[in-house]
């Protein structure tokens, strides 16, 4: 479980951590909690969007980010709220 694993890092250090996560996920299940949508779209295979403790949407990251089924997910990803 990683909570905002690169929140206080510079871009070079962030890239190194993301590369490490890519390697680790080959052998381990990793759960990342983040508000960084760009990072989530880069490094995750599956995405869950939570709002006020409820799972609004869960699926393949590509699908959630490019074709969300729930309007609340679309609103958050597009920056309409949050």
What does this structure look like?
The chain is an alpha+beta fold. It has 2 domains: 1-43, no CATH class; 45-82, no CATH class. It is 41% helix and 21% strand. It has helices spanning 11-24, 37-43, 61-66, 71-77, and strands at residues 2-3, 32-33, 46-51, 54-60. It has a two-stranded parallel ribbon with strand order 1-2. β1, α1 (11-24) and β2 (32-33) form a beta-alpha-beta unit. The model has no long low-confidence stretch (mean pLDDT 95).
Describe the SSE topology.
Blueprint: E1 2-3, H1 11-24, E2 32-33, H2 37-43, E3 46-51, E4 54-60, H3 61-66, H4 71-77
Parallel strand pairs: 1-2
Antiparallel strand pairs: 3-4
Summary keywords:
single chain; 82 residues; alpha+beta; 2 domains; two-stranded parallel sheet; 4 strands; 41% helix; 21% strand; Phosphate ABC transporter ATP-binding protein; ATP-binding; P-loop_NTPase; ATP binding; phosphate transport
Short description:
By secondary structure, this protein is an alpha+beta fold. Helix content is 41%, strand content 21%. It has helices at 11-24, 37-43, 61-66, 71-77; strands spanning 2-3, 32-33, 46-51, 54-60.
Structural class by secondary-structure content = alpha+beta
Tally of helical runs: 4
**Helix-strand sequence:** EHEHEEHH
- What would you call the shape? globular
Number of strands: 4
Radius of gyration: 13 Å
* Largest sheet features: 2 strands, parallel
The spatial strand order of the largest sheet comes to 1-2
As residue ranges, the low-confidence spans are none
| Tally of domains | 2
N- to C-terminal distance = 23 Å
Question: Can you give the mean pLDDT?
Answer: 95
Q: How much helical structure, as a percent, in the residues?
A: 40-55%
| Relative strand content | 15-25%
């Amino acid at each position: 479980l990683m909570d905002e694993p690169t929140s206080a890092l510079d871009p070079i250090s962030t890239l190194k951590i993301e590369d490490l996560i890519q390697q680790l996920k080959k052998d381990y299940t990793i759960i990342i909690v983040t508000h960084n949508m760009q990072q989530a779209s880069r490094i995750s295979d599956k995405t869950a969007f939570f709002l006020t403790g409820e799972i609004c949407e869960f699926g393949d990251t590509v699908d959630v980010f490019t074709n969300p089924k729930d309007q609340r997910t679309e609103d958050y990803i597009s920056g309409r709220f949050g």
